Amino acid sequence: MVEPIGIEEARAQIRMDGDASRDADLARYIRDAREWVETYTGQTLIAGDAVETFRVPGRVVTLRAWPIASAAALAIAVVDEDGTEVSVIGALDTARRPATIRSTSGWSMTSADQQLRVTVRAGYEPGNVPGNLRRAMLLLIAAYDADREGGEVFAASEARARSLCRSFRRHRL
After folding, report:
1. Euclidean distance between CA atoms 88 and 59, whole angstroms
2. In the chain, which stretches have pLDDT less than 50?
3. Which residues face 50 on adjacent strands?
């Protein structure tokens, strides 16, 4: 897994020389900053397969994963209570967030114990994470290092990170 911010970039952010003795701390700060941004925005910063399950879905299901490329590989299966899978077909719509999948011929679910499982590639490919999300991570990394107790420095940095990430959040009406 390639993080959006590398160790060298994190070192530069906290103005640390090439000393590798704190690399484990920096790796943890990077992971924590990515997870903070992902939680706040609802976006996945590292591309990978997202698996979502639905019980008794309608003809359209709404995915939580984002971003999803319009050409993303999609696998949909009805899963019985015993684990037996039957592949089904659906149409992926990524024109707006949240992405949806529409049943093209019904999901063929005959029991309330069945689940619809959707697997789709979601997240940003390496090098494509938007600048504001990366900047928010860098702010948080510096705050984790400077204010390990989580005081005023971290609170101010978190507020700035929220500001940088706000336009990437999923908005609900």
Report:
1. 12
2. 173
3. 120
Q: Cα(142)–Cα(30) distance, rounded to whole angstroms?
A: 10
DSSP H or E stretch at residue 88: strand 85-88
How far is the CA of 74 from the CAs of 53, 60, 171, in angstroms? 13, 15, 25
Structure tokens at 141: 């990394």
Measured CA to CA, the distance from residue 35 to residue 118 in angstroms comes to 23
Stated pTM of the model: 0.87
Q: Return all residues near 95 (Cβ < 8 A) that are at least 6 apart.
A: 70
Q: How far apart are CA 168 and CA 173, in angstroms?
A: 15
Residues 107-126: tens digit of each pLDDT: 777 788 899 999 999 999 99
**Residue reference for tokens 């900047």:** 135
Place of tokens 């684990």: 83
Please state, in angstroms and rounded to a whole number, the distance separating the CA atoms of residues 138 and 10.
7
Residue 120 DSSP code: E
3-state SS assignment for residue 78: strand
Show Cβ contacts of residue 82 under 8 Å, excluding neighbours closer than 6 positions: none
